[in-house]
Write a structure and sequence with these properties.
Elements (H helix, E strand, L loop, with lengths): L1 H18 L1 H18 L4 E3 L5 E9 L2 E8 L6 E10 L5 H14 L4 E5 L4 E9 H6 L4 H24 L4 H13 L1
Antiparallel strand pairs: 1-2, 2-3, 3-4, 4-6, 5-6
Helix pairs in contact: 1-2, 3-5, 5-6
Length: 178
Amino acid sequence: MKKIKSLFRRLHHKLSVISSEKATRRIAARLLLNYLDANNLRYRISNDQSFIEIGFNLSDGHSSAVYYDFTENEKRMLVQAHFLKLETDQIPIASVLIAHLNSLIRKGTIRINFERLQVYFEREISYSSLVLESDNLDEFHRQIVWIPKDFLWCFQQVLEANEDPVVVMGELIRKYES
């Protein structure tokens, strides 16, 4: 019986994706909320349910604020993970690391907000792919958390251990290969 319900739910989602962008956005938001609830993640949601915010501890007092934006009249959800506040003199080092990491990241981009001196990871995902590939939601969410952790680790190695950015990136690549 469970398998039949699951089959009908997936069929309903696929038909909704074909028929209505508004329904697709609503289903995508519901899938994300169900995922967050199932994994006991605390979140804050706007009154119109177009914006979800989650906080994560990364390491040693560093945290990440992840924003899921379900803007109406858009075909994509924008996700931003703000995770590092910079000093003005740290921008050149951060820029070098960002360039290296962005060359490795397949989906998404690390950016600097120069007005706020803040580093963030940004990714867009279409509502339809979120609905149709809801099995990949765990992998998608893990990427939103791990990319900031990896960048933060690289940044700390360069600043605190005075490592060369290229050496640090080599260590990161080896970490992923093993």
